[in-house]
Write a structure and sequence with these properties.
heterodimer, A: mainly alpha, ABC transporter involved in vitamin B12 uptake, BtuC, 2 domains, 69% helix, B: 504 residues, alpha/beta, six-stranded mixed β-sheet, 17 helices, 24% strand
């Protein structure tokens, strides 16, 4: 610890007197109003989403051919321009919603004797999309709770996918054992990929943001390399596509053949509960939290900061690796160079949106899963490209990261404590 | 420019940092502000520089009362300040740093670098502030960087220059050069306020000296006052309401530090190192002005820093270089000097802070599972025993007052069997009641048989608590004396003097 000789330290100040609390209103409604008015973090997150949807709406309207044509004649027929825009937006978002939650047509069809399973199609797709996101998000969250930034989710997930796929297509084991082994392979691969930056940070102080990003590139290369070796390829073919994962290693479907919903969602939720328990109720979680909040106090209290860092990165890597494995064993069933490639950054997005809490991450993953599922539907039903979904997802993260902007747009007061801290600079 | 401070008062919560201070700085004068740690020197100057707002009294310049909302107003009024930590951009050159914010602009609006360079050369000639205008600041030694800071202040037409502990970062030759520069500045009509606690320098460079103690002006002096006169003004003659304590009954040696040499970053050597020992049932006060190596020695004892050489022995066992966790496990308790930074985790609730160094084993954990109930019961007991005032045990520790935070730390450390208690600056920033409580608990720990090391820059405290006093200077123990030693002698020891020599 380097410190210039301290010759006069500022006298410890007493904390400023608490600012007067805003007037209380009773009940849940009152609490919601208070949250919104005082610009609490939940309110800011939700409003960030709203703002992102608004901007997305503008983009949709602007890129819709019919609306664009109507706007060219806006001076002569403004109502039509607005109407056309509204139609474009409503169609797109409507399709998004139907793809993510429920298609009313399927309900009436079921009532008329059609398939009941189809009704749950959208929800199933949402959950399927959310499953790996939950795990990838938890990876970033747990690292954050140890004071670390895990940007290596991409590499960790890809290698987890590769390991899981390999065990899945190359080994033969009875069903439950096979699946477990494949998932564990994914966990181990990810954990190993997290150990490297963790160890480097503990030994040399190398910043994990740099090392994990670099290792992402290495992982991409590694997977490409693996997919050029015959053992990873299909019989008699040279294209980079692995053999199909054996049925005994796949995550079993939960709701019949037609729906893609698989065991992964339960695994993800169970893991979320485990992470919550680890952080809140164990000595390990406590050490991680102490290190993330105050390294000096941690050291003085005898907590090993380096060990916390290594452990944090290993756990983060393991979770991301599991995310990759779940993606392969739950939906893809085969490894390609792009397997699990987007999980890393989506994981960061949902962790940010969820404010690096376990509960928040799960909710944010469900939301992003809804976007993914709905976006596919939206692209199929309207002319709106899937990229709008990516834009909205990205904008949400941007607005969450810039709460001042959101507050300014919605004219929220900053919380009293923050206002007091802002003064006197 | 004549600056007068009249009745200046500044409070932080219940703590009065400056109490009715009267200070006059004449034109063409080097005025030294002398005092121990926590005396209120920096606070006073920050008030003058506009970084802090007055709670009482007023400041006048040339007879006109002034009010500063921010340093910008002070700078506009002709007051400049060079802080201990410089505000320079390391990648820019000297000339660029000097003109930062007050850029020389040519006709077309472009930066006039040549004019900026000329300014630097001019200042060098006039005041002896030799510096190469094209040198990159980040490459310069600290002494030269300080000159750049002074030039910045001069560039903004500072008529009064405040220097906060300027020689803290300088080597002896650089200090000499600085004094030459200050003399030249004085000749040009400027006034200088030189904050320091180093008696020798103050006598060398000051025209007048004002001594602060615990927020009050306790005297003014001229440089022909002796070092011991200044020292006694600095440390005061009146006895503080100290705790009553009986004679200790020292037993076996618990801690022995032998030739412990610990380097702070940037130092190249630290002298002979510290040698001292502490017995059971005894309090050793390690007294000295802050910055003489106490922090580093304590860190070495606690395994937070590797000593360069020397050894630490705990009840006969060599523990040099052992990890902090192991030291704690051997019955050592530690209350660090910076409670907010190294003692508590401000964001965590009080009850979690109370088990920060013991949570990993029974009864607070079974395997890796935390035993919440045990932790909370423990916290409730400690909070009542140590009278920690807080709305509940669940509030963030950072919201507690200084005194209560210190109680939390003490409670945590004293809640387990203690062989050696190390407390650094136990009552810094505490009001009288909390200070008394803390001192009492320290004595109680001694009476229960612990060896206690109290590290403090407050001489009164060192005398009140210590069964013996070891004075530390530049990383070495100057002498170990009984607390009945006269204060003047102690002051001299703390300034590195030798009691066997005739007093200067």
């Amino acid at each position: 610890m380097s410190r210039p000789p301290v010759l006069e330290q500022p006298i410890a100040a007493d904390p400023p007197p608490a600012a007067s609390a805003p007037p209380r209103r009773s009940g849940l409604g009152g609490r919601i109003v208070r949250e919104i008015v005082t610009g609490g973090t939940v309110a800011v997150t939700v409003l960030a989403l709203v703002l992102a949807l608004l901007v997305g709406a503008v983009v949709i309207a602007a890129s819709d051919p019919a609306a664009a044509a109507a706007w060219r004649r806006v001076t002569s027929d403004p109502v039509r321009a607005l109407g056309a825009s509204w139609d474009a937006i409503a169609d797109a978002y409507g399709a998004l919603l139907r793809g993510a939650l429920l298609e009313p047509a399927s309900v009436s069809a079921a009532v008329d004797g059609g398939s009941i399973a189809n009704v749950f199609g959208p929800i199933s797709e949402t959950l399927v999309a959310a499953t790996p996101l939950i795990l990838a998000g938890l990876s970033v969250t747990i690292a954050f709770r140890a004071g670390l930034f895990n940007i290596g989710g991409q590499g960790q997930a890809m290698l987890g996918a590769a390991a899981g796929a390999f065990v899945g297509f190359h080994w033969q084991l009875p069903a439950a054992l096979h699946l477990t082994a494949a998932l564990l392979a994914g966990v181990s691969a990810g954990a190993a990929w997290g150990l490297i930056p963790g160890f480097l940070k503990a030994r040399t102080g190398a910043h994990e943001v740099i090392t994990t990003i670099m290792l992402n590139y290495v992982a991409v290369g590694l997977v490409l390399y693996l997919l050029s070796k015959p053992i990873f390829l299909r019989e008699g073919r040279t294209d980079p596509l692995s053999p199909e994962v054996a049925g005994s290693a796949r995550l079993p479907q939960l709701a019949g053949e037609t729906l893609r919903l698989h065991l992964g969602i339960l695994v993800a939720l169970a893991v979320a509960a485990a992470v919550l328990w680890l952080l809140r109720r164990t000595t390990i979680g406590f050490s991680l939290r102490i290190v993330s909040l105050n390294e000096d106090a941690a050291r003085t209290a005898g907590v090993s900061v380096s060990r916390a860092w290594v452990l944090g990165m290993v756990l983060a890597g393991a979770l991301a690796g599991l995310a990759g494995a779940v993606e392969i064993l739950g939906t893809d069933y085969a490894l390609v160079p792009s397997s699990a490639a987007s999980l890393g950054f989506l994981g960061i997005s949902v962790a940010l949106l969820g404010r690096a809490t376990v509960g928040g991450t799960v909710l944010a993953s469900l939301l992003y899963g809804a976007f993914e599922a709905g976006g596919v539907r939206m692209q199929a039903a309207t002319a709106t490209p899937f990229d709008i979904v990516t834009v909205i997802q990205a904008l949400t993260v941007l607005f969450v990261a810039a709460p001042q902007l959101v507050r300014a747009v919605f004219r929220l007061r900053a919380r009293p404590i923050e206002a007091a801290a802002g003064r006197g600079w | 420019m004549k600056v007068e401070l009249q009745g200046v008062t500044k409070r932080f919560g219940t703590l009065v940092a400056n109490a009715g201070v009267d200070l006059t700085i004449e034109e063409s004068e080097i005025h030294c502000l002398l005092g121990e740690n926590g005396a209120g020197k920096s606070t006073l100057m920050n008030l003058l520089y506009g970084s802090l707002r007055l709670d009482g009294g007023r400041i006048s310049i040339d007879g006109r009362p002034v009010e500063f909302e921010s340093p910008r107003d002070a700078i506009a009024a002709g007051i400049g300040m060079v802080h201990q930590h410089f505000a320079l951009v390391p990648t820019l050159t000297v000339a660029e740093n000097v003109m930062l914010g007050f850029e020389r602009v040519g006709r077309s609006g472009r930066l006039d670098r040549r004019a900026a360079r000329r300014d630097v050369v001019e200042m060098a000639e006039r005041y002896g502030l030799e510096a190469d205008p094209d040198a990159v600041v980040g490459d310069l030694p600290i002494g030269l960087q300080q000159r750049v800071e002074i030039m910045k202040a001069l560039k903004r037409d500072a008529q009064l220059l405040i220097l906060d502990e300027p020689t803290a970062v300088l080597r002896p030759q650089e200090s000499e050069q600085l004094f030459g520069i200050l003399a030249a500045l004085r000749e040009s009509g400027r006034s200088i306020v030189f904050i320091s606690h180093k008696l020798r320098e103050v006598r060398k460079v000051a025209d007048r000296v004002t001594i602060l103690r615990r927020g009050h002006v306790v005297g003014t002096a001229t440089p022909d006052a002796t070092e011991s006169e200044l020292a006694s003004l600095m440390v005061g003659k009146n006895v503080l309401l100290g705790v009553q304590k009986s004679r200790g009954r020292p037993g076996a040696v618990v801690l022995r530090a032998d030739g412990l040499r610990v380097l702070a970053a940037g130092e190249s050597e630290s002298g002979a190192g510290a040698t001292f020992e502490i017995r059971e049932g005894e309090i050793l006060s390690l007294a000295g002005v802050n910055g003489n190596g106490q922090t580093e020695v304590v860190e070495a004892l606690m395994g937070l820093r590797r000593p360069q050489s020397g050894s630490v022995t705990l009840s006969g066992e060599d523990v040099t270089g052992v990890t902090t966790r192991e030291i704690l496990a051997r019955g050592v308790a530690f209350v660090p000097e910076d409670r907010r930074r190294s003692g508590l985790v401000a964001e965590l609730p009080v009850y979690e802070n109370l088990v920060l160094d013991v949570f990993a084993g029974p009864p607070f954990a079974k395997g890796i599972r935390l035993q919440r109930k045990a932790i909370r019961e423990h916290a409730a007991r400690l909070m009542s025993e140590f009278d920690v005032r807080a709305p509940s045990m669940d509030v963030a520790a950072g919201t507690l007052s200084g005194g209560n935070q210190q109680k939390v730390l003490l409670a945590r450390e004293l809640s387990r069997p203690v062989r050696l208690l190390i407390v650094a600056e136990p009552t810094r920033g505490l009001d009288v009641a909390a200070a008394e409580f803390v001192q009492r608990r320290i004595v109680e720990a001694r009476d229960a048989g612990a060896a206690v090391l109290v590290v403090t820059s407050d001489l009164d405290e060192a005398i009140t608590l210590g069964d013996r006093l070891a004075v530390i200077y530049r990383g070495g123990i100057v002498d170990t004396v009984p607390p009945s030693t006269p204060r003047e002698s102690l002051g001299v020891l703390m300034a590195g003097g030798d009691l066997s020599l005739p007093v200067a």
